Amino acid sequence: MIEQTLIPVEEVGTIAALQPWPSDGPPVLREDSSMWPLSPSQIDPEDDYELDPDEVYTQQHSAPRTAPLPPTIIQPSQSAWDPDWADCGLAPIVRSLYAEKNIKKMYDWQFSCLSNERMLEGRNLIVALPTSAGKTLVAEMITMRCVMVRKKKAIIILPFVSIVVEKVNQLAEFGRRLHFNVEGYYGGQGSFPLSHSTDVAICTIEKGHSLINQMIEEKRFCKEVGLIVIDELHMLDEEERGFNLELLLTKALFEGRNDTIQILGMSATIPNVIKIAQWLQADCYNNLDFRPVPLSEMVKVQNTLYNASGQTIRTVQDYKCKQASELYPLCMEVVSKPDQSVLVFCSSRADTVNTADTLAKCLPPETMKYKEQEKVMLLQKLKYANSGGSDSTLTRTIPMGIAYHNASLTVDEREIIEEGYSNRIINILTCTTTLAAGVNLPARRVILKNLFTGREKLKGRTYRQMCGRAGRAGIDDYGESILISRKDQQKVAYELMNAPLEEVRSSLYNSSCKKCFKRLILDSLGGHYANTRQGIYDFVSCTLYAFQSPMEEIHPEIERNLSYLLDNGFVETFWEDVNGIQVERLRTTLLGNATFQSTFSPEKEASLIDSELRRAQELLVLSDSLHLCYLITPMYNLFPVQDWDLYLSIYNSLPPIRKKIASAVGVTEDYLYNQTVCSKPDSLSDSRHKDNLSLRIAVRFYFALALSDLIEEVPIFQLSKKYKIERGNLQKLQESAQAFGSQMQNFCKVMDYWALAEVISTYCKRINVGTKMELVPLTEIAGVKRARARALWNGGFRTVRQIALATPEELMKAVRAGPYAGEGISKMIIRSAKELLEKKARELREQAEELLPTGGTQEGAGNGFL
Ligand SMILES: Nc1ncnc2c1ncn2[C@@H]1O[C@H](COP(=O)(O)OP(=O)(O)OP(=O)(O)O)[C@@H](O)[C@H]1O
């Protein structure tokens, strides 16, 4: 075995004498300061040839332990002569682009990070600073340095689709001016394989993981990628998503072991940042107390405001609004001044709606006069986005400058409300916790309506993220957060305000994520990181879980899960002849490889899906979209059916072909009738129904019906009423079906179900945008969604090229569609269409260059070869 480098333990908090990784891989570190010296699997395959698996296993246990490498803590810059800007080797124009955004000088901490030599040399870095501290600028500068100075690609991983979309727009603006290309990877967006001309890929966690897997497979990852940015690094401890993030980072550590790939992690809520930095072999900048805009945290009990130590600050004036006596005065104090805004965090979706309604009733009527025209426009935009449907609450509250924001709204509705809030047309926004970590919508005052989210008590991390939204950089000189508490809960409120943040632990600690171990093993074999038990141990030892757990717990876990995979046909052993010696190896079977490529769960989904797909190849009905929609509807985590009577009546009105499909998948009238008699709204996550296959099929079929209407362009408002599914939940269904469908496609490709893969791919595209096939190409234009695409089509614009060549006037004339027909929007659509054409042309050129090795697509260049 290759010897491990021994690294002395040094006191955390000092600048360590850092050593580079050994040439054969990262040192394998453990949180408890005892290192399990496993070498990365590919170090030298010949090393364990003589060992049988049991021997290897024993050796691991008896191996000596070494110590972890503490990270360097980047110190705030102390020098009086520090310039205002660290250019990271980028041209001066970058600074002027920031100046246009009103960022003229860097904060000290930004300067310290961006002028740090080790960071500039490519050392990994973790930045742990509170919300609104300005982490984005640091990430952008390091990304641009990667692309423009180091000439490598950057992959940015963000937690939510909405933030990916926002970031793509922001960076594309830089890209246009500085000549680099940005591509977004979310939902059905983003081309696989990554185009050679894409410089920055901005991805959701799952898409980022798939992209990295594919680049590793094509041996492009280490060669082309120079940077991986992870925003909200604390998501490592979230169940499924955290696991994907951990796996992705494990691969990056494993692959980029010659320091070729820099990792930048950012979070506002990682108290054990030093340990996480140690796992990632990163330096860190850690100042969870930094705030560019000072924050004053308070709790309100009855009429009095207290600080976090329980000292009285002041009493609140009573504004006499019976329905919202606690909240109304706190809102009025702020919004009675011009251009001020309040965010009110509520405990549930229903509460956001009720609170907005109640507050609107209390506000004085003259409030309606403020920005009256803009409010009318905002309501029109919402109506247009809903194909003519109007939300009755928003129609009442927006004229008063109030709106609600939660997941029951569609993405379009939320975007329009966010825009209205940013432009100060809406002054009071009631929201759920989703806005705490989502898009950047700061407020002068943040109010937490109570100590709960749903039925659970707020966690320290969520509380801090909510408070962090108070104070707008460059606008406010301070921000305020006020937690409203009942008198009998005052103690709990103080505990929450003073609670230390929860440490970030690997998602594999989560009992519901234990199943992920099987995926971990499949990934190590399927991704060719390992072909022996030793190799699997090596790979697993690079995970955060291995860094944080005693090895005695990990070994049995690996063995147990490996046995399952061997017994159930996902993994097999084979013998390899090495210099005349027969050596036992491990590899994925066809089913195992399909499961790895699709990221399905081996236990819950893979076998079930395989038998369903085999049946579908014989019985698939193609004359109606419903059967395919059913195949693409996820098997798990669906919402409950709210009304079985409604379901039965929908079933009874289905045409014969749809009833035939229902019977082919196993839904019968008798079953639905029984449900109407004996069932309440059921949740599939309810343990009573976990194994109830018939129920799962029936629920899946119900949502497939809704999806099949959606792709026929039935307006979401109408669908929501017909099926009693909230608008936001319909879009969630659309998103998850699209994701499930692309997993299916990968599964089918590996299993050689080519015909199914093709047809599923077409339906995924339709489901992604919720349209008939004819509109799909138009929806590829940035800013063109379902409604706009239909308006363009009906106005005679049938191809992207036609739109790219149109004048804004022609477009406006054709698309007479309310607030979306303005000149600015038309120009933006034309520009996006041109960019899309250019991107497609670039990709075709690349493909041509790959086809024609003599070089290029210039006229005549390929003739000799052909
Ligand atoms: N050096 C600076 N000078 C002035 N304003 C700045 C500076 N850096 C960032 N800002 C502004 O501060 C605000 C918050 O910054 P940013 O969104 O980067 O915070 P963040 O740390 O990424 O927060 P989050 O944790 O919410 O993602 C933005 O409006 C940004 O433009």
Question: What layout of secondary structure does this protein have?
Answer:
Blueprint: H1 53-62, H2 92-100, H3 108-114, H4 117-120, E1 124-128, H5 135-149, E2 153-158, H6 161-178, E3 182-185, E4 200-204, H7 205-217, H8 221-224, E5 225-230, H9 239-255, E6 262-267, H10 273-279, E7 282-286, E8 295-301, E9 304-307, E10 312-315, H11 328-335, E11 342-345, H12 349-362, H13 372-385, H14 392-397, E12 402-405, H15 411-422, E13 428-431, H16 434-437, E14 445-448, E15 452-453, E16 456-457, H17 460-467, E17 479-485, H18 490-498, H19 516-526, H20 533-540, H21 544-548, H22 551-567, E18 571-578, E19 581-588, H23 590-598, H24 602-619, H25 626-632, H26 644-652, H27 656-665, H28 669-678, H29 693-710, H30 716-723, H31 727-751, H32 754-769, H33 786-794, H34 800-805, H35 808-814, H36 823-851
Parallel strand pairs: 1-6, 1-7, 2-4, 2-5, 3-4, 5-6, 8-17, 11-13, 11-14, 12-13, 14-17
Antiparallel strand pairs: 8-9, 9-10, 15-16, 18-19
